[in-house]
Design a protein that fits this description.
about 150 residues, alpha+beta, Nuclear Transport Factor 2, Chain: A, about 45% strand
Length: about 150
């Protein structure tokens, strides 16, 4: 069954809401993990890793959001979602984001994209892989972390 673009828009809006909640007092572990398959791959500059949607992922999320908060991350928004069907149950989604940061009282907006591999599992979309650019270099360019 071919999914409508609105299904993907809703999926990533739900994900970004969980992301933004996680920038508050506690990480929305359930909200984030509910968007991922049991196992997944993650790729970035010079690295490809595999992960499981388990307690180790929970620990990684806790550490990740502590870092995001420490560099002044305030919120994230989805700016675009482009989807390519792979087959009847798998999709490639290129998602544009804009992240808002605050450093020394100054607002900083950083646009970036992430490509996701999605599967349909029990009628729901799940991320089974993603490819991200060099976020640390973006943080350095914008003065959020030291060179």
């Amino acid at each position: 069954m071919k999914r409508a673009k609105s299904d993907f828009d809703a999926f990533f809006q739900s994900y970004v809401r969980a992301y933004n909640r996680s920038l508050g007092e506690s990480v929305d572990v359930h909200g984030i993990r509910s968007h991922f398959s049991e196992s997944f791959i993650a790729a970035g500059p010079g690295t490809v890793m595999t992960g499981d949607n388990d307690e180790t992922f929970t620990e990684t999320l806790q550490k990740g959001y502590a870092f995001y908060k420490s560099i002044g991350t305030r919120r994230m928004e989805v700016t675009s979602v482009e989807v390519t069907d792979i087959d009847e149950e798998h999709y490639l989604a290129k998602v544009g984001y804009q992240a808002q940061y605050e450093k020394d009282g100054e607002a900083i907006a950083i646009p970036f994209c992430v490509s996701y591999l999605l599967e349909e599992r029990d009628g729901r979309l799940k991320v089974f892989g993603f490819v991200a650019g060099d976020e640390m270099e973006l943080y350095r360019q914008h003065g959020l972390i030291e060179r």
